[in-house]
Amino acid sequence: MRNAYFDQLDSIVDELVDMTHVVKVAVSLATQALLTADAEIAEKVISDDAAIDAARERVEERSFELLALQQPVASDLRMLVAALRMVADLERMGDLSVHVAKVARLRVPQVAVPAEIVPTIERMATVAEKMVDTVAGIIAERDVEGARQLEEDDEEMDQLRRSSFRLMLDDSWPHGVEPAVDIALLGRYYERIADHAVSLARRVVYLVTGETVTTVDHL
Amino acid sequence: MRNAYFDQLDSIVDELVDMTHVVKVAVSLATQALLTADAEIAEKVISDDAAIDAARERVEERSFELLALQQPVASDLRMLVAALRMVADLERMGDLSVHVAKVARLRVPQVAVPAEIVPTIERMATVAEKMVDTVAGIIAERDVEGARQLEEDDEEMDQLRRSSFRLMLDDSWPHGVEPAVDIALLGRYYERIADHAVSLARRVVYLVTGETVTTVDHL
Fold first, then answer.
1. Is B73 left (phi over 0), alpha (psi -120 to 50) or beta?
2. Pairwise CB contact (< 8 Å): B215 & A73
3. Digit-coded pLDDT (tens) for B88-107
4. What is the pLDDT of residue B65?
5. Of A73, A84, A180, which is closest to B68 when you measure between CB atoms?
6. Where is the PhoU domain (chains A, B) (predicted)?
7. DSSP string for chain A
8. Residue A168 exposed, middle or buried by CB count within 10 Å (0-12, 13-18, 19+)
9. Pair B132, B59: CB distance under 8 Å
């Protein structure tokens, strides 16, 4: 028979999975705000981030309670410490979506992204959302195989970022400094969202296999 | 009489303080590499980051050992979980110094930063280093007062970043896109180093006072 302790462990995992869904919506809406110069959607992303912060607090409180009251050992201890880190990754992904939304808001009524960069940013957003989806599955199923897919997606993200730099730094770039600065920072935000997705997945791999986690942050 | 358990807790705090010193050197050398276009110093920052990663692993292993074997409760439990987070902040500060060094290396033999932006970047680096120093003191002494100073320094960092944007986005900016993109990203890196310093300090405040920690990330 299941007891309250295992139910609480499960509820933490459920909350982490729920958070990935909320983060995916944040990434998607932030990108929509960015590419359509929609201030209302941008504001929504910014204000909805409070829900992600609140979810982080709930997971932290529950994890602490279990650590303090149940004194878990071995794999449960590892899981709870991993949960505390994963929730920090998810919160950062929410913050980074807010940053994208703030760039959008800053340039309204103009679209911050020049037309020839739109496909690159769109693809970055698609890859980021796909990675968040994959992470949700990895957390829910403890599916270590999915983590490999994420590394590939992360590689595509890096290539997209390099291609945005090539366009901006080409002599034929007609848009001047401001859009270039926006795109450099936007690219950094999407790339960091991807990095946090990889980091989340690696924490699950560590839980399942004991294999060491390393931090990701390419430039 | 002190026992091995308290010695191990102390050794974790000592290691965190040592890491802040190593991070400060990384920030300082990365800035030197940046402002003098010194590829050798840049390489040193990049390769020395392995020592910060290794320190992170040591702190993580020791914290896990204590969590698993000693099953600490209340304040010791909070301290160990805080240590796991603080070490993640410190590792990121090292990574961000590496990013600064990589921008430096990318532009050698040229200096990535145009002359009129040098004072701003220099000041950003000085503020960042000062903040890392303050954090070392806060961790070592559990001095909650020092945390207030950090919030002020962080505000100065934000102002420096805004001032760099004003210079780059002015019509009279003569340097084109590439240095602007470099400075936008460099500003982001120094700002994130400052944010992590504030985050570290808030974790100590939380340990000492029980006051809630919130994440910092301005744009």
1. beta
2. no
3. 999 999 999 999 999 999 99
4. 87
5. A73
6. 17-103, 121-204
7. ---HHHHHHHHHHHHHHHHHHHHHHHHHHHHHHHHHT-HHHHHHHHHHHHHHHHHHHHHHHHHHHHHHHH---HHHHHHHHHHHHHHHHHHHHHHHHHHHHHHHHHHTTS-SS-GGGHHHHHHHHHHHHHHHHHHHHHHHHT-THHHHHHHHHHHHHHHHHHHHHHHHHSTT--S-HHHHHHHHHHHHHHHHHHHHHHHHHHHHHHHHH-PPP------
8. buried
9. no
d(CA B28, CA B12): 25
Spatial separation of the C-alpha atoms in residues A171 and B76, rounded to whole Å? 58
* Structural domain spans, chain B: 4-209
B72 CA: distance to closest CA in chain A (Å) = 8
Multiple choice CATH, A4-209, 1.20.58.220, 1.20.950.20, 1.10.10.10, 3.90.1150.10: 1.20.58.220
- Rg of chain B over all Cα atoms, to the nearest angstrom: 19
For the four alpha carbons of B82, B83, B88 and B89, in that order, the dihedral sign comes to positive
SS3 for B154-183 is HHHHHHHHHHHHHHHHCCCCCCCHHHHHHH
Cβ A91–B178 below 8 Å, yes or no? no
Contact check, Cβ <8 Å, B181/A176: no
User: Position of tokens 């020592």?
Assistant: B51
Closest in B57, B77, B188 to A185, CB measured: B188
pLDDT tens profile A185-217: 999 999 999 999 999 999 998 888 876 655 556
Predicted pLDDT at A212: 62
Written as six digits, the tokens of B75 are 């304040």
Instruction: Locate B209 and state its tokens.
Output: 């006072």
CB pairs < 8 Å spanning A and B: 83
By Cβ distance, the residue of B68, B84, B168 closest to A181 is: B168
Q: What residue in B sits closest to A69 (Cα-Cα)?
A: B73
CA distance A119 to A125: 10
Per CB-CB distance under 8 Å, the chain A contacts of B165 are 181
pLDDT band at B207 (very low <50, low <70, confident <90, very high): confident
> What is the nearest CA distance from B75 to chain A, expressed in angstroms?
10
Write down the mean pLDDT value for chain A.
92
Encoded tokens for A197: 């997705």
The token pair that represents B155 in the structure block? 């505000």
